[in-house]
Amino acid sequence: MPSTQPDVIFLVLDTQRVDRLSCYGYAKPTSPNIDAFAAGATRFKVAIAPGQWTIPSHASMFTGLYPSQHQMQQSYSVMPPHLKTLAERLQDGGYYTAAFCNNPLVGVINNGLRRGFYSFLNYSGLLSSKPNQAGIPSSFLDKYRQVFKRILAKALNKVQDAFARSDWLLSLSFTPLMVPLWQTALSFKGNTRKSLDDAAKLLIERKNVQSDQPVFTFINLMGTHMPYHPPREYIEKFAPNVLKDRDAQTYLRRFNSDVYGWLAPLVGSLGNQKKDTLDGMYDAEVAAQDAQVGYFLEQLQQSGRLDNTYVVICADHGEHLGEKQLIGHSLSIYNELVQVPLIIHDPTDTIERRTLRDDVVSTRCLFHTILSVVGLAIPEESELSLEHPTNETINEIEPDRYVYAEAVPPQNVLNLIQKRQPELISQHACDQTRRAVWVGHHKLIETDENPPQLYDVQDDPGENLDLSEIFPEMVESLQESLSAFSHDADEHQALYSQARASGFDDPEVRRRLRDLGYLEE
Predict the structure, then answer these.
(1) How many Cα neighbours within 13 Å face the side chain of 270?
(2) Whole-prediction pTM value?
(3) Which of 127, 170, 316, 457 is spaced 20 to 30 A from 66 at the CA atom?
């Protein structure tokens, strides 16, 4: 007899820009499978990530808190022990909890994001790990493989430890010659197909799951993260210039091997040819990943499992591809990073399917929404569920339903820029915290020392026209809201004693994070 509680799939498309999905208005057919799924689901037009990169954004989705509240804002941050994660809450509520993760910042570092999972499979790295395999027996062959991996890991650790302790070797590891070797050897972006196949197998076959037990499945895919190496068929469709133009090929090779270039602001504009190359290759990666996601959803549909499965498809953040002289996802709080896709398939129709929601929502509220739909939320949490649309005008929105985002600069990025191009720190205010608030169609950005910026993000989604001098009264009103939010953030910062995630200093982990550009040195 099936469980009365639905299965839950939480699928995070890491680094997926909302404006590159066809169902969100992109002119190119990058996402036919997600488009088809969205047509029968609920699509949220303006979903905002609480943070601009992986760790703060995932921590917010897993706790329902803003980054300044959970304090997971650096590569080495660790989840405060008193906070219960979404997986822990669902596990306590009777769910079998399993993760299939391709991002080492979520699946390798012991920072608390793995808490609450019976099974957590990590697909990134040469020695992919399988922590928290509680209750799953291992065969003799599995044990033999684990022993072999430990021996190999010990040997690799000696080499990697030498790189971690030597400034000269560290600099060498960032050179165009070395980075591609590490990217290849360490399965840089994981294994999208295998992680999705393994997740589908669990949901359909339900091995090690009790007959009446619902399943919570978290999946993180890295297909659209740099570097860009999509299959040729997608390059032919979305980036044909890369196959024909030697200059484009040369630029792409350099870009894919330049980890520092993924993090630092640009000195000048990117230029049309380079911009076209990055756009095309990014689109090709979106399309390639969409095909894999489509096959995953098709398996679940054919098995009948989707009939009782609550599905969330979202992104943790987006990506700058040269806009505003920025690359990657470290420093800004513009829409390219914090406005993300959000699609929900609710088999109970608590959130009405086949609809488009126009209200501004925060992906932190996915925590409250999932707990509410499965009957595990307390009343205060249910009030923040996305089941309840907010009104559209500033006068009708309750203050606790304002949507905020925070961009605290990752210290590792600042350290790298300071070593290589210190002048960029002041030019782009790289070392300053940014916060933003959305009310209705308007968004106010405040930076520690720079003037505020006000945008009408409905009419100007690219945030090209600053309205702060035209509507000073609105700026003042929204500044009051941000001031209260910032005061609360400062109180949390003062009360919180930062701990360092265990496992962060493991040489293999440091090598993976260095190649992703996340490691602080």
Answers:
(1) 24
(2) 0.86
(3) 457
